Amino acid sequence: MRILGHFYQRDEIVKYADFVGDSFMLAQAAKQHPEAVSFVFCGVHFMAETADILSGPEQSVILPNLAAGCSMADMATIEQVEACWRELTDVLGTGGRMAASDGGLQPVIPVTYMNSSAAIKAFCGRNGGIVCTSSNAQTVLEWAFESGQRVVFFPDQHLGRNTAKAMGITEDVMPLWRPHLPLGGNTVEQLHDSKVILWNGFCSVHKRFTVAQIEKARADFPGARVIVHPECPAAVVEAADGAGSTEYIRKEVEAAAPGSVLAIGTEINLVNRLQQQRPDLTIFCLDPVVCPCSTMYRIHPAYLAWTLESLLAGQVPNQITVDAGVADDSRIALERMLAAKP
Ligand code: 13P
Ligand code: SF4
Asked: Which residues line the pocket of ligand 2, CB cutoff 6 A?
C-alpha cells in the first residue's frame, strides 16, 4: 500500500504520505509503483481516477472521502463536451485530416486539463487529443499544433489562456465557449479565425487572486518575488514574476536566497507548509482571506485512519474504478500527456 498526497493536502495528511507531488508527479507515481497492492489517494476525484487508469489492473485506488471532488472539473460534463464537439465539427469540418491546402492539419484538437472527468479524457483520447497538467501545458499545446489548426481547451479557461498567451497567441483568437449558448456564444467567423477555443471553466480558489493584491504585496515588501499558479486570471499571471504548477512553486521557494520575500498566489495549505519549511524566508499568500481548496480539505485524517483500518481488516473501501472502455481511451490521452515532459 502506498499513500499518495497532493501538495494542497493539509499537514496532518501530508505527514503520512509516501509520496507528495503535483498532479503530473502523482500520475507518474501511480504508473511507476507496480509493487503497491493499493494506492490511498489523498487528493481529489479526478486524480484518483487517473491513478486507476495508469496503475495496473490488480492494483486498487482508494479515495478516503468520496466527496473530495473539484468544482472546476464539474464545470464540463461529457454531454456538454460532446455537444460542443458536434457543433465545432459541423462548423470547422470533421475530425479527420484536411486536404493539403489546409496544411494536412486536423481542424481542431481537443485538449483537456487533468482537472476533468475520465469520460472527458477518454473523449480526447478517441479524437486525436491529449491531457495536460499545469506543469506541461505549453509542451502539450505545441504537440497539438503539430497536428491541428486549432485547439479546444477544457475546462479551465485561465490555464488555456495563460499558456496560449505565453506562446504568443493573442486573445482575439481565443473565443470563450459558453456551453449553454449556440456555438458557445460565438459566430461562425470567430470559430474559423480561432486558434484556442476556451471552455468557460475556472477554479474558485485561484480566481480570488487579483492584481491589486500583487500591487499591495509589492508596496508592503519592495523586492518581493510574486509567484502564482496558472489557474489565476491572465492579468494576475502577467503582473506576477512567475507562474507555474504547485511543483514549480515549491522549487521556486527551495531555490530562494535566505532573507527573500515571496508572495504566493495558490492554495493556503501549500503556502503555509512552504513557510514552515523555510523559516529563513518571508512567505505569505496574496489573498489575505485564507482560502483552502474546500474539496482537497475533505480528506480529513479521520477518513485516512478509517481507510487504513478497513484495509487492515481486508476490505477495500471507497475504491475508484473507471469503466474499462473509458479507461482504455483515457489512457491514450494520458500516455501522450506523460510523454510531454514538464
Ligand atoms: P498542480 O498540477 O499544479 O498540482 O495543480 C492541480 C490543481 O488542482 C491546482 O488547483
Ligand atoms: Fe479544483 Fe481549484 Fe481545488 Fe484545484 S484548487 S482541486 S482546481 S477547486
From this structure: 44, 70-72, 115, 203-205, 231, 267, 293, 295-296
